[in-house]
Each structure stands twice: as structure tokens, then as C-alpha cells.
Amino acid sequence: MHKRWLLLAVAVTVPCFASPRANWTGPYRPCAHKSELLKNGHMEIGVRIETTDTTSTEEIRRALRFWSKVLDISVYEEPSDDCAIAFVDATPEILAKENDVARAQFTDWTNFQGWIAFDPHISAYMGADEIFATAVHELGHIFGLVHSANPSSVMYYLDVDADAELDQSDVHALAERHAMRATAAVIPLLYTSLISDRRTTR
């Protein structure tokens, strides 16, 4: 399997006297309802998908279906600025490191606009299941997860295999921020079942 690194920047706890870290920026329209991602109850998540890679678009939709089984969210596609999340094509400046393939903004950092950027050429070197796992990983950041040192976690900081899962630490961190649909015991099985979920919205 061809390996690519994901974003290596790890969110850190910022002391109260320090200013928060700043998110990357780009030539994209912000999402007007990005504050929906800060709710700890049910969330209505409008998603604008502007990625030009067709495989990425389908795997992003599959990743959104995965997260709708984990968190208490309703997800719908929203082509306008009335979105909470926007998937966009990354510029070379956004994917500054040689092996970066995707990058999400962090809700806790300044200048949060709801963006997740994907390499527009990602399907040339990654398979569909790897792109799916990458989309799950980047959405994990949007939902408040930081990188994991556990290689079997989908939030692992170096790369993501298609058979990764949300581990106990991921689940506990999610439960502190958001309402959950699935229990910790269900999520790994749920993830495995959705790896083979090939339904698409065309």
C-alpha cells in the first residue's frame, strides 16, 4: 500500500495567557454556520463539497455517512455559504509539507472558517479506502480530535490505513464535546462495516 503522511501539526493545549494558534487560510468562501460544530447537542451539518477529484468527492460522502453513525448529527449537502463545513481543493501552500495529502482547520484555533482541503490529485496515488480513511481523519479534527500516537487509530499522526478505527481515547474525547449515537464498543465494528460500504450519491 502506498503510504502518504497526513498533516503533522498537532493541536496543543494553549495556556490561558497565550494567544490561540491560527488556522491556515486560503482563497475560499467561509461557512456561515461553522458555529454549529461547537454544539454539544444535536448538530445540523451542511456540507459544501467543492473538491474536483471525483473519487475524493465520493469518499468524503462515505466519511460523512460514517460520522453520522457516530455523532448525533444530521448531514446534508449545502452548495451555498450556508454550510458548516466546506471541502475544497488545497493549494500548494496549504499542503506545504512534501507528504501532506489533506488538511483540516481546528475549531479551537483563530480564523476558523470550516474548511477541509484535499490534494486535488489524491486519487492518483491513493485508493478509495485510503481516501475514505483520510476524510474520516480530517473530519475528526473538525469535530475536535487531535492526533493520536496509536497506529491503529484513524487519528494516528503519521498515516491512516483503511482498517484503522476510532479507539477508546478518540471516543472519550468526542464524548466530552459532542452528543454520541454509538457507544465505544460499537464504533470499531461500525467502522469496519462502513469500509465496505460502497453506496454513493451521484
SSE layout and pairing:
Elements: E1 43-49, H1 54-70, E2 73-77, E3 85-89, E4 102-104, E5 115-118, H2 128-142, H3 168-177, H4 187-195
Parallel strand pairs: 1-2, 1-3, 3-5
Antiparallel strand pairs: 4-5
Helix pairs in contact: 1-2, 1-4
What percent strand? 5-15%
> DSSP helix count?
4
**Radius of gyration over alpha carbons?**
15 Å
**N to C succession of SSEs:** EHEEEEHHH
Major sheet summary line: 5 strands, mixed
Q: How much helical structure, as a percent, in the residues?
A: 25-40%
Structural class by secondary-structure content:
alpha/beta
* Chain-averaged pLDDT: 84
Q: Count the strands?
A: 5
Task: Please supply descriptive tags for the structure shown above.
202 residues; 5-stranded mixed beta sheet; 12% strand
Structural description of this entry:
- Mean pLDDT is 84; it is low at 1-17 and 198-202.
- The radius of gyration is 15 Å and the shape is globular.
- The chain is α/β, with parallel strands linked by helices.
- The longest helix is centred in the first third of the chain and has 17 residues, at 54-70.
- 25% of the residues lie in helices and 12% in strands.
- The protein starts with 42 loop residues before the first strand and ends in a 7-residue tail after the last helix.
- Helix 1 links the parallel strand 1 (43-49) and strand 2 (73-77).
- The protein has helices spanning 54-70, 128-142, 168-177, 187-195; strands at 43-49, 73-77, 85-89, 102-104, 115-118.
- It is built from four helices and five strands; from the N terminus they run βαββββααα.
- A five-stranded mixed β-sheet has the order 2-1-3-5-4, with helices on one face.
